[in-house]
Amino acid sequence: MDSAEEIKTLKVEMEDMRKTMATADVGLAGNDGLTEETEASACSLGLRGRDGRDGAPGRDGAAGRDGQPGPQGPIGEKGDIGPEGPPGEKGEKGEDGDGGGSVYIRWGRTSCPNDTETSLIYDGKSSIQIVYFAGIAGGTFYSHTGGGANYVCLPKDPEWGVFTDGNQGAAYIQGAEYQDDQFGNSPFQGASVYNHDVPCAVCHVASRGSKLMIPARLSCPSGWTREYKGYLMTERYNHNRSEFVCVDGEPETRPGGQGNVDGALFYPVEASCGSLPCPNYVQGRELTCVVCTK
Q1: What's the structural domain count of the chain?
Q2: Distance between CA 220 and CA 229 in Å, rounded?
Q3: I need a surface site. Which of 63, 187, 188, 273 has the fewest CB within 10 A?
């Protein structure tokens, strides 16, 4: 179809539209109703030539699915410390403790000092007081190369567990003897205790939690209490090694324990100059000692 025919057809359609609109206007002005043809034409015209009124908003759609978590953001600055809360209620008082304190061995005596608030821990007897024991000093035989290297305070009444009678060649423990006067240098005054068995007492100080043995001193530092003083003793220099202990300056002996049967031995300790500075130490002089608590 050429352009002239297209223009002619368009004019015919426009004329038809004009007539239809005129007819619709007359119908609307003359009566309340419309013919089906007129109504259809009007609808057709409305769709083609006029904008309709805005309709009501539609309903919200369904919620979408949750997305994936995003990356963690940076840590924020620390906030200010809040005000202190009110104190809580006071709790119930706990049970009384045992008082703590300290324990030491008084070598050469069967009792604890009675002027330092000290009680005997054991003595092998049944008692209602705090009693542990006054016992027997013991250790390894002086010439044995093995065994323990320290003196021990043994109770008078041992308690046995599983045992095999007879010596099996394992380890041994003997009692201890004083050897204070073997070379004529006993530091103890009064009757000789040479070759007598050495007693000991295990003592508890309830009010003082620290203990200290100081060699070469007879007095305690300021603020400390002296439990006892005496002389430093150990095994002889050419025997197998033991430990240095402080033996009370007024030693006792174990009844019935006299006799040269050896065992663990207690010799006075002499100062030996060289790496030990003299003065103030003196060559060959027997050393003192003191046991202190605080």
Answers
A1: 1
A2: 10
A3: 63
Rounded Cα distance, 12 and 15, in Å: 5
Contact 24, 41 (CB under 8 A): yes
* Whether the Cβ atoms of residue 267 and residue 179 lie closer than 8 Å to each other: yes
Output the pTM of the full model.
Answer: 0.63
CATH classification of the domain holding 103: 2.170.240
Could you tell me if residue 285 is inside a domain? yes
- For residue 265, list its beta bridge partners: 177
In a domain, 194, yes or no: yes
How do beta strands 118-120 and 264-268 pair?
unpaired
Helical segments of 36-84, H only: 36-49
188 occurs within a structural domain: yes
Tens-place pLDDT, residues 52-87: 677 788 788 788 788 888 888 888 888 888 888 888
What value does the mean pLDDT take over residues 171-195?
88
- The continuous run of DSSP H or E covering 26 comes out as helix 3-30
Task: State the DSSP code for 128.
Answer: S
Residue 215, domain extent: 97-158+171-294
Asked whether 289 and 213 are in contact (CB, 8 A), the reply is: yes
| Residue 82 is assigned to a structural domain of this protein | no
Task: Reduce the DSSP state of residue 107 to 3 states and report it.
Answer: strand
Q: How far is CA 137 from CA 89, 173, 182, in A?
A: 54, 10, 19
Angle between helices 3-30 and 36-49 (to 10 degrees): 120
Q: How many Cβ atoms from other residues are within 10 Å of residue 185's Cβ?
A: 13
Phi, psi of 196, deg, nearest 5: -85, 150
